[in-house]
Amino acid sequence: MLRVPRVLAGRRPSAPLLISTAALVVALGGTSYAAATIGNADIKNSAVSSLKIKNGTIERADLAASARIPGPKGPAGTQGPAGADGADGKDGADGKDGADGTGRWLLVDRNGEIVAQSGGFTVRTAYDVVNNSGAAVPAGALGNVYIDANEPLSNNGVTVSIALQNQYDQNNDTVLNGRAAGADSNPEFSGEITATVCGITGVVGCAPTGANTRNTFVVSPRNSDGSLTVTGDGTAANPNTHKRFYVAITGDSSDYVAPTPAVPAVPLP
């Protein structure tokens, strides 16, 4: 509380004294007054510059959300050194052994005889020749060739193809180059051929004695018009029209058993 000097007691203060006293009051308490009463409206727009802000005092929370925009992505840093190679992994277990490779094959000539093979094939009945049992060929087997593979063929495939024979005139037209005009005019080069395993219930039945088993397959060569080939006498007027063909057995032949060779009879002394 401001005390009035005794010299002033009972006297009316003059105007200059009042002014100087007020100035003193403002000087003593004006700073606190101003700090307590100056607000956002008392500051002129754009009046506060960077120069008036203490460095390092503005934080992210002091900025509006719209002002918190990330800067551009900086350049990629240099690649670090390559790491050492990891240890080799453990070897995997050995795989299961595969089935025996394919490769059983044979070549049959127009007389129904095997002229080359990988081994183990025997002819049961060829075209209309007497079969291996000594009995006549059944009518349903005429024109076909029945071959024993000496292994069950349930897990095998049978592939056949006609082999050309351009040194034998099969239709007596003296054309052996395969260029004769007309249907089935080049039997030395052409024809039809099919094959299947025997003994398939409801699908395939093979007529010759002992042939209706899974060890036997039948090959059916035909002329290009589907007609049966015939056994001629080999003359120019009556040629043999049977087909020469290849056979390949594919699939698993691990169950193949080589046939036992026949033991020749020993003549009596």
Automatic annotation (TrEMBL):
This protein's superkingdom? Bacteria
| Residue numbers spanned by region Disordered | 64-101
Listed Low complexity bias regions? 75-85
Protein name stated in the entry: Collagen-like protein
Which residue windows does the record flag with biased composition (Basic and acidic residues)? Answer: 87-99
